[in-house]
Amino acid sequence: MTSVLVTVAALVGMEAVSYLMHRFVMHGPGLHIHADHHAPPSDGFQRNDLYPASFSVLAIGLFAAGTAVPGLRLLVAAGVGMALYGLSYLYVHELYVHGRLPLPRRPWRYFAWLERQHRIHHLYGGEPYGMLMPIVSRRLREAAAADAREPFSRAASTRETRSRL
């Protein structure tokens, strides 16, 4: 039971870590790495992919430490929570919202809501920084609803629309 609680806590906690990293590192001193995510997309690897890859390395480290040291077994559960967050991020952000791979999309309301919230981030370059539970003020939602620009899409038109950011 403790392992399940640690896994859930790590999964939920990663949204806070992701928010803080996105807000204060990716849109701060690490913007030179994150900037290509806000630029017209190219095929293949983006420098921004280094951020989720670094989280993966941390999760792998937790798995390794938790399996190598008997007293640290709960680190495996924390690694599972981080990995689950990473898989969620991969699906929601990279595949569903930005369509980086041509996979079928289901019209799930939650994912469509996330896509609308993330659109606001790409329109204005600020809030919301969270990915799975983004918080957007009413004022910003109303401004975005009136803004006809489309900062990203899953089609080739992405190259034209994101260049306007």
Question: What does this 3D model show about the protein?
Answer:
The relative contact order is 0.14. This protein has 7 helices and no strands. It has one domain (2-162). Helix 1 packs across helix 4, helix 3 (50-68) packs antiparallel against helix 4 and helix 4 (74-97) packs across helix 5 (109-124). Helix content is 62%, strand content 0%.
- The helicity comes to 55-70%
Global Rg: 17 Å
Could you say which structural class the secondary elements and strand pairing correspond to?
A: mainly alpha
Give the tally of structural domains: 1
Beta strand count: 0
Total count of helical runs of at least 4 residues: 7
**Largest beta-sheet details:** none
Distance between the termini: 47 Å
Indicate the mean pLDDT.
Answer: 85
Q: What proportion strand?
A: under 5%
Tell the overall outline: globular
Poorly predicted tracts of residues: 154-165
Order of secondary-structure elements: HHHHHHH
